[in-house]
Each structure stands twice: as C-alpha cells, then as structure tokens.
Amino acid sequence: MKDRLNLTEGRITEKLLKLSLPIMGTSFIQMGYNMIDMIWVGKAGSKAVAAVGTAGFFSMACNGIYYDFKSRWRDKSSTKYWCK
C-alpha cells in the first residue's frame, strides 16, 4: 500500500470524492441488481415485486448498519491500542 490517501493535506473535496466513489459505485451496482430482480419477478404480480423491493431495502439498510458498527468498533479498538 504505497499509494495511500492522505486526508490531511491538499483539497478536501478531491480527497473525499476519491474516497466516496467506490462506495457509491457498489451502492449503484446493488441497486441495479435489485432493479433486475424486480423486472424478472414483475410477471409474477405486484405482491412479488413489492416483496423484492422490500428485501432489497432491508438488504441495503442492514449493510449500512453493519458497516457503521464495524467502523465504530475499529475506531474504538484502535483508540484503546494507541492511546494507552
């Protein structure tokens, strides 16, 4: 990891954009998968489409909650390690 992103130097907008683009890309891919699932299930009826849409929503919500707790745990553990 020779080429690390230093957020403390330079323009913050460029740094945040570089940091957020992969996250936004994976979110768009996940939404695309959900949309394709809804198209495939569309012939089964409106209840099936609603079920797929709801499952996609909960999948994205659970991912968000998971990554939030994961980052909080990582921050707490690194703080305990480095701030003795």
TrEMBL record:
The chain crosses the membrane at residues 21-42, 48-67. One of its GO terms (molecular function) is xenobiotic transmembrane transporter activity. Keywords: Membrane, Transmembrane, Transmembrane helix. InterPro entries: MATE_fam (IPR002528). Coiled coil: none annotated. It comes from the Bacteria. One of its GO terms (cellular component) is membrane. This is Drug/sodium antiporter.
